[in-house]
Design brief:
mainly alpha, two-stranded antiparallel sheet, 2 strands
Length: 744
């Protein structure tokens, strides 16, 4: 049928040509045929052109507009000259009496749709102007056509049309007007030259804003209409010029009323619109901030029914996402309002699984730490921790750890972003919350199905994060301020007893509490020693006795007694859980962390090792060699560090040699055992000492050779190999064929 339209242009007789064109359009349909008619119209002259005018003019203004828009879109992929020719054709037709007459006839009834089509046409023309095809060509042709369209939809005329539609009280017409207005707002800056833009926008907004509050709050307005009003206001917020921002102020409270509505979808739209107000108006939004906080607290409260599936159709945002975006904007506009119960409710709700998993949550929590007054932020964290601890008894280990990690992350955000005065001022509050988080073990009631390994794995995650927070806090403090925090750490770790032996005879839970805190203390000491090394070593010296006690731990008979006493001291309705394995795991962790701390201490300290410290440390290290629960790699490194420091930091050289000989002899004595694992560990320890000291170890060579003589042909191949490795090292240090001598 497209060929029929083309053929009609060749018919000479006007009436017949008119009938053929009309029949073709009726048969194909106006949406397709009129595009072809417009295309051919540009090539006609005289009477033939008039026939095409007559056909086009017989259709509605909106149908003609739709045909022109489609024609322009179809030409966008063509070469530049063809595209520009098509745009010229449309421009000529827009200025023709036929089309102008159609516009006047239809403005009264179809004004919203007519303007909508004009705005769509502007978008297509702008796309053509910015395309790669027209990049290197003259675009003044497109500018001329744009000017023609803009003239047809002047702001004054546009507002008059919309006022008529809104006054009809017919929801469909009002919705049409609002959609046309929203479209106009989006492209308004393209319709006028910059110097006239503020004036044009002021005229447009001031007229429309008189109508919007009534439409929004009218009980008879359907939700779709209210939604359209919110959408229009939202677009106005995002496109308003600085000179016209004051026009938005009267709309804030009506939008807040919508955000407070029971209709969740409308409430979500209202919250998102408030976010746009905050972005644009910032501190000018103060009048609606208290009400907004109340809405946010209500919508994010963990006590209300699940709302995540109720999405705002326009923005595709869940209620929680809308709330988070609004909170984020408030943080950068009016952060001083985040305080009180509403803030605590909002903060705690953000730690719930359904909200915490959203991508914006972390950004908002970091914003709280950075922007909120610490006097309100830190109590909110503390309150959340307290609420959680009250509810944590009986929860699973995994759930407990996840919640505590979130709270510790919040503290870590604060430590990272807070300035030095605030860090100093609130250092003790932050430290106490970190210590409190390390109480997690005591807050979880272990179940029979919870294995020791899985429990320890989960709890260790929290302890690592808590220690990281504490070290970060310590690194931001001056020494004088750090001493207060360190004293608090010691007070907390000691609890009711100052030594592990004090806990024997008490309930098992008391011993576990002491061990929990001591483990955290030792790990903190290790991290700080690694960070500041020599500077921190003096703080540790006074704690060596406690570390050595933890290193040795409790004998097995006392461990069993603790567990037995604990089970018999309470009457239980359910079968008691055997917790001795958990206690044994704690003792192993305590020994490992103590060993590591001693190794670091003797690596970095510059203090003279006193005879008392030397004797007690050596006694503990030799004893711990026989404990199956300790990590052999850590043991040998710690003993080597201790031997090297005892030798180097002695007051006199002779004293250093004596101490080295003592260490060497007492460690070697442990080789007299049927336990091949212990023989291997002793050999590794002597090898580590010799490697650390080098030629300074040679005075111990006679004892070492006697030691090697027993192990060079050990029945355990692993022990034999390690003994030969030690022999080769001693040969390098002494220059003597030690292995050959031992074989003779």
């Amino acid at each position: 049928m497209a060929e029929v339209v083309e053929g009609a242009a060749e018919i000479e007789e006007r009436r017949l040509r008119q009938e053929v064109l009309t029949a073709a359009v009726d048969c194909i349909g106006a949406d397709l045929a009129l595009v072809k008619v417009i295309e051919l119209w540009g090539d006609q002259e005289g009477e033939k052109k008039a026939s095409f005018f007559d056909v086009l003019g017989s259709y509605s203004c909106t149908e003609q507009q739709a045909a022109m828009i489609r024609f322009l879109r179809e030409c966008q992929g063509k070469p530049a000259d063809e595209m520009l020719a098509a745009i010229v054709t449309v421009g000529e037709y827009l200025g023709s009496p036929t089309f102008l007459s159609s516009v006047e006839d239809f403005l009264a009834e179809e004004s919203g749709l007519v303007h909508q089509h004009f705005q769509d046409m502007i978008e297509v023309l702008l796309q053509s102007k910015e395309s790669e095809v027209t990049k290197n060509t003259r675009t003044d042709v497109i500018d001329n056509v744009l000017e023609t369209v803009i003239t047809l939809i002047s702001t004054t005329q546009f507002c008059q049309c919309l006022e008529k539609l809104l006054a009809t009280s017919i929801a469909e017409k009002q919705l049409e007007a609002l959609e046309a207005f929203t479209k106009r707002v989006e492209i308004s800056e393209l319709l006028v030259v910059p110097r006239d833009r503020d004036e044009d926008q002021a005229q447009l907004y001031s007229k429309m804003f008189k109508e919007l509050p009534d439409l929004m709050l009218n009980r008879n307005s359907p939700p779709t209409l209210v939604q359209a009003v919110i959408t229009a206001i939202d677009k106005c917020c995002l496109n308003v010029s600085s000179g016209n921002q004051g026009l938005l102020a009267p709309l804030m409270k009506p939008v807040l009323e919508i955000a407070q509505s029971d209709d969740v979808e409308l409430s979500c739209s209202g919250i998102l619109c408030i976010q746009s107000f905050l972005v644009t108006l910032q501190a000018k939004c103060v009048p609606i901030v208290p009400g907004t906080l109340a809405v946010l607290a209500k919508r994010m409260s963990p006590n209300v029914e699940e709302l995540d599936e109720l999405l705002n159709k326009r923005e595709r945002k869940s209620v929680h996402e809308a709330c988070l975006l609004t909170i984020d904007s408030m943080l950068y506009s009016v952060p001083q309002f985040f305080s009180g119960n509403n803030f605590e409710t909002i903060f705690q709700s953000m730690l719930e699984d359904r909200v915490y998993s959203l991508p914006t949550t972390t950004q908002v929590l970091e914003g709280f730490a950075q922007k909120c007054d610490p006097r309100f932020f830190l109590p909110a964290v503390s309150s959340a921790m307290g609420s959680y601890f009250r509810e944590a008894r009986g929860t699973t280990a995994e759930s407990a750890v996840v919640q505590m990690e979130r709270l510790l992350n919040c503290l870590n955000y604060f430590i990272e972003v807070a300035d030095k005065p605030n860090i100093r001022k609130h250092r003790l509050d932050v430290a106490l919350m970190i210590f409190r988080s390390a109480e997690l073990r005591r807050r979880i009631r272990l179940k029979t199905e919870t294995s020791t390994e899985s429990f320890e794995a989960f709890v260790s995650r929290t302890e690592i994060l808590a220690i990281t927070c504490f070290v970060s806090l310590a690194m931001k403090l001056r020494e004088v301020d750090f001493r207060d925090v360190f004293d608090k750490l010691l007070q907390w770790s000691e609890g009711s007893g100052r030594t592990l032996k004090d806990e024997v005879g008490k309930e098992l839970s008391s011993t576990q509490k002491y061990l929990d805190r001591s483990i955290v203390l030792q790990k903190c000491l290790c991290e700080l020693l690694e960070k500041v090394q020599v500077l921190f070593a003096p703080f540790v010296t006074a704690l060596l006795d406690r570390t050595l006690e933890l290193l040795v731990g409790l004998p097995e008979d006392q461990l069993v007694k603790l567990n037995t006493d604990s089970q018999s001291s309470r009457k239980r309705k359910r079968k008691p859980v055997d917790k001795s394995s958990h206690l044994a795991t704690q003792l192993k962790t305590a020994s490992d962390s103590s060993l590591r701390m001693l190794g670091l201490y003797f690596t970095f300290t510059e203090e003279t090792v006193s005879d008392r410290v030397f004797d007690k440390t050596l006694e503990a290290l030799v004893e711990v060699l026989e404990l199956p629960r300790v990590n052999g790699e850590v043991v040998k490194n710690t003993i080597a560090s201790f031997a090297a420091r005892a030798f180097k930091n002695a007051k006199e050289e002779s004293e250093g040699s004596r101490r080295l000989s003592t260490v060497n002899r007492l460690v070697i004595l442990k080789v007299r055992t049927n336990n091949s694992s212990l023989r291997l560990l002793v050999t590794e320890c002597i090898l580590a000492i010799a490697q650390r000291l080098g030629e300074a170890y040679l005075p111990c060579l006679p004892e070492a050779m006697s030691f090697l003589a027993d192990l060079i042909d050990d029945e355990d191949l692993e022990v034999e190999a390690k003994a030969k490795e030690l022999g080769q090292l001693l040969e390098e240090l002494s220059g003597e064929p030690i292995l050959a001598q031992l074989k003779e």
